[in-house]
Amino acid sequence: MDPHFDWIAVGSGASGLANALWAAHRGLKAIVIEKAPVVGGATAYSYGGLWAPNNMLQRAARINDSDEQGLEYLRFLSGGFAEEEKMRMYVKEAAATIEAFAQLGVPFRMIEGLPDHYFPGAPGSLALGRTLEVVPLPKRALPDSAPALLESPYMPGGVSWSDAIKWGGLGNRYSWAPENLEHAASVYAAGQGLVAWLLLKCIEKGVTLLTQSPATRLVLEDGRIAGVEVREGDRAQQIKGDCGIFLGTGGYECNPEFVRAYQSFPNSAPHHPPTQTGDGLVMAGELGAFIRNIPTSLSSMVGYWIPRPGSEPEFHSAGIQELAYPHSIVVNSEGKRFGNEAFFQEFVVKLREFDVVKKHRYANIPFFLLFDSRFRERYPFANIPPERPLPAWIKRAESLAGLAQELGIDAQQLQQTVAKFNDNASAGLDPEFGRGQSLWIRKVGDSKHPINPNLGPLSKAPFYGVELTPTESSSAGLYTDIHGRVMHLRGHAIANLYAGGTVRVRTEYGAGYQAGLTLLGGMTFGRIAVEHALLGNKKPS
Ligand SMILES: Cc1cc2nc3c(=O)[nH]c(=O)nc-3n(C[C@H](O)[C@H](O)[C@H](O)COP(=O)(O)OP(=O)(O)OC[C@H]3O[C@@H](n4cnc5c(N)ncnc54)[C@H](O)[C@@H]3O)c2cc1C
Prior knowledge:
The chain is an alpha+beta fold. It has 16 helices and 23 strands. The chain has 2 domains: about 5-215 and about 475-535, FAD/NAD(P)-binding domain (3-Layer(bba) Sandwich), CATH 3.50.50.60; about 300-470, Alpha-Beta Complex (Flavocytochrome C3, Chain A, domain 1).
């Protein structure tokens, strides 16, 4: 392979692929360098939602929206941690990015009936039309020579967000109609679908794809980044990128040192692919890049560890899954509920509550997910279909008191908590924390469940339970300007170096989180980076 390119994108998630595709579209000779043997990164794990206020699909459906309204919502989300000019840039460019990639042949559609979430009542929010996804891509459309795609442990293969809603929610996945499953088996959808479309378009545009080749170092020449050093097996080689180098290497969730340095939970577990080790931060950091943190990040969930005999345990995120299904509850070791289980952003803030005087540690950790037999009759747990026997690592007892003893929970208090919870849950109510009140979470619970899709009593023995662990998305990242240029600690841009996606600190939305911001943000800043580089370069468009 000739190692001279105009443009290098490091990472094959949404940001890297979109960036390379856009570079190729603008006439640049582009390469994507990927560390893993498969493409897709956390994007392939994701639900694939893309958030674009005032977009072309809304206009086509005559849904009123405006940049100002989108901006108002972003300001609410930011909690004061975002920068006005970046929020403006996002609002202006996100819809333009959807339009631009649609013109390149990537088809998008609205996720029907999905309001802005997670804050449908916030100023500037809209009930419909801003969250988009790609139309699923038939598997046969990808050439045989294409690299394999990473599979998601969270989204059943070939199932889009729209389909999951239409078919009764993820909780009902084991009763979906056979014809639906047959269709799903033949397509790429959700986050994996987005990867598939971008990959297909990259291939069509002649982008070179190099997998199993971690970038290890940025090459600095004459005061600008001229390329990257890449390891292929035992061999190291330099690849040059004349017009620009774009880092789309994702977060650092699987780097325990970085997690300890930047995140709020010392025992935070990763729900991301193992290649998310913060390589972009290391490569740019050693050249003086400014790594910034958003100290109050709500982009966190909870889950549990699944032991795997003979190998490392696997982490399973339960946020928009088990915690959103009826007949489950979360309590701390005192046997008390402390938040709305089905709304992870609110829940995670409660987890950060520090008991200064009595315990001098987080008040609500350890914490536990408990469920009853009615849950098991209907819903999967740890991806084990309903009704199947559960393995021994999931604690089980014939009574709540017995389960409390197994897990180290205050038994008397737990019984009182569940009795109170059940009284209201039977009527679909949760006066304490409002579980199942939000329209978006009702869509991902069990829509066939009577009264409240996210709530039901724990009354049928045996009872089950596991300890939960927080899982956070990276809150720190490379600080960039509005063009996606990576900034040096001394306040100037590092010449020829750009970043997008989760390797970049999210100063366009700050503390809060709205599904669709990270994926479309990565694509948007990936496109902006190429446009900025072209302005200052001699290459043709
Ligand atoms: C279950 C789940 C659901 C989600 N749902 C949504 C959603 O609906 N909408 C949304 O906006 N966000 C969602 N997210 C978040 C979203 O997936 C991420 O924010 C997004 O994928 C980040 O994209 P990226 O391109 O920055 O990084 P990634 O997609 O993680 O890609 C980074 C790539 O870089 C590669 N890499 C790392 N280091 C190197 C190196 N040294 N050399 C070469 N390659 C390297 C990695 O292997 C990886 O392939 C979800 C996340 C999860 C886990």
